[in-house]
Amino acid sequence: MRRIVGQRGDRPLYSDILGRLVEITETHLTVRGRTGAVRVPIAEIHRAKPVPDRRRLTPTESLEVAAAAGWPAGERDQLGDWLLRATDGWTMRGNSALPVGDPDLPLPDAVDAVSRWYEQRALPPAMSVPLPLFQRIDDELDRRGWTPMPLTLLMTARLADLPAAADPQVTLDASPSDEWLTAVAGRKGPLPPSARGVLTGVAAVRFASLRDPAGALLATGRGCVADPDGRWLGLSLIGTDEHARRQGLARRVLGTLTAWAMEAGATDAYLQVEQRNTGAVALYEKLGFTTHHVYQTRVLPTG
Fold it and tell me: InterPro entries this protein is in (predicted)?
């Protein structure tokens, strides 16, 4: 709405208010904006109009939503548009809030609500904030003393620009074998029972295994297409046994998953990697990935 707030000579002065209409009476309108509720006399309203309930997502927000769908947390809840995720503490992606869109609360109240949600589950409150789009949220968490974790790159590539070839030594399964899970646990740490739900909680998902001629498992990878438009191949858990590295095995796993995703109709790929993992970043850049944006995960220190 546009509100008359004063007069300068013979011209009125205006102030704009954007928010959710929460009350209307014969004399006043009450609108809840980002800074709280504002009660405006009807006589001061120059004009008002409805706007779409939800604005269109930016490319960064759309990609973050697609990535969240590809890594479905064991427990999910909403705070307005914000996504709250908990998975027994396994992986930061599965145990942090994703502040995309509008929480329908002033920012300080929204941060408090996130803290309470995680504390009720005996988990440290955490948020993964896409930057620079939501710098204001990161600044608020920084002001409150939330500890920054290493920056994570969200990298993307067109599937047509990636090596796409099904390798006869790479098998793709609809569910992970115990051996596959053991290999991943050896690199990422023990997997709780809820981890299987995260890994298999997507309809279109494949678990890649590359074996040597004797049948020994050398490399793994996971690929999924989880966004509603079927555009994005999400790549994760691409890893090679230490004794078999620098032999191009990760490229072969990625190529097989890429060929599968192209057959499924996907056109682009994304992956998430810590910025400090320079070896992996260099490999993905060599394959054709570029950084779309970064996100900063912050955790509220216990106590």
Answer: Acyl_CoA_acyltransferase, GNAT_dom, Rv0428c-like_C, YpeA/RimI_acetyltransf
Instruction: Give the length of the chain.
Output: 303
- Are 181 and 192 in contact, with CB atoms under 8 Å apart? no
Helix runs in the chain, H state only: 59-69, 107-119, 135-143, 178-188, 193-200, 249-263, 278-287
Q: For residue 267, which of 182, 164, 142 has the smallest C-alpha distance?
A: 164
Q: Which helix H or strand E contains 47, and what residues bound it?
A: strand 45-47
Per-residue pLDDT, averaged over 193-221, amounts to 93
Name the phi and psi angles at 183, rounded to 5: -65, -45
- For residues 8-12, average pLDDT: 83
Asked whether 1 and 40 are in contact (CB, 8 A), the reply is yes
For tokens 């990535």, the residue is 67
Please give the average per-residue pLDDT across 263-282, as a whole number. Answer: 96
CA distance 287 to 298: 30
In this structure, the number of other CB atoms found within 10 A of the CB of residue 147 comes to 13
What single-letter amino acid sits at 235?
Answer: L
CA distances from 158 to 61, 162, 163, 282 (A): 18, 7, 10, 17
107-119 helix and 135-143 helix, angle to the nearest 10 degrees:
70
44-56 burial: b if 16+ Cβ within 10 Å, else e: beeeeeeeeeeee
In the chain, DSSP finds a helix count (H) and a strand count (E) of: 7, 17
pLDDT of 22 > 80? The answer is yes
Q: Are 3 and 40 in contact (CB under 8 A)?
A: yes
pLDDT tops 70 at residue 55: no
156-294: CATH topology: Aminopeptidase (3.40.630)
The band of 87, judged by pLDDT with boundaries at 50, 70 and 90, is very high
Burial zone of 14 (CB within 10 Å; 0-12 exposed, 13-18 middle, 19+ buried): middle
User: Tokens at residue 11, please?
Assistant: 């011209």
Domain ranges of the chain: 2-47, 59-152, 156-294
